[in-house]
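DOMAIN: structural biology
WANTED: fold as tokens
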Amino acid sequence: VVLIVLLTRKPETKEEFGRFKGKFDSYNNVASLNYNRDFGDQFSISTSYSYRSHWSPEEGTSDSNGNSISFRINYGYSAITIFSLSYNYNENRYKEGDTISSQSASTGIRRYITELLYFNGRLGMNFFSSSNNSDIEASFTGQIDEKTTSNIAFFKGDRISSDSEDIFRSWRVTGGLTRELLEDLRSSISGSSSRISLSSWSPSSPPW
């Protein structure tokens, strides 16, 4: 079981979303439980459950809590190629409002280009009442030396907001560098560029 406490600051503009202007503080608690098992040399499964709670002292935001369940099957086609199938269920309940839930199914691949460089790709569908949109995710991860790895990734898809009863469609590009300083200590640096837009879902048309 992993418990993570995060403090985040999110700059959002009234002109873009019609909801917030300036910066606001929000707090998130996340508890998760994960299980993995191998079946022979080629197959493995992984499943996880997480519970999260979100609150903010700022006006115009909404406290919420939610659950997520995921299940994935991995198939080792060869020593350098791994295929996967996954299913995710996500639900967010707002303190003063409705509940938004979504289901998604996706297929993925990991392909080793060299011993130190591999590609991850995933294509899936998110299912909401107002629309069914695709998720696309791709990344390259490389090991620079024995203690240093680098990563660059692209993501495009829908995410349920914890701050308000909204679904946001976004894309982002991230890059990072991780360095192992000691056996149990790692340091990392990362940067990202993103674009976010508001989807057409509204509380008057709940999912399902």
The chain is about 0% helix and 75% strand.
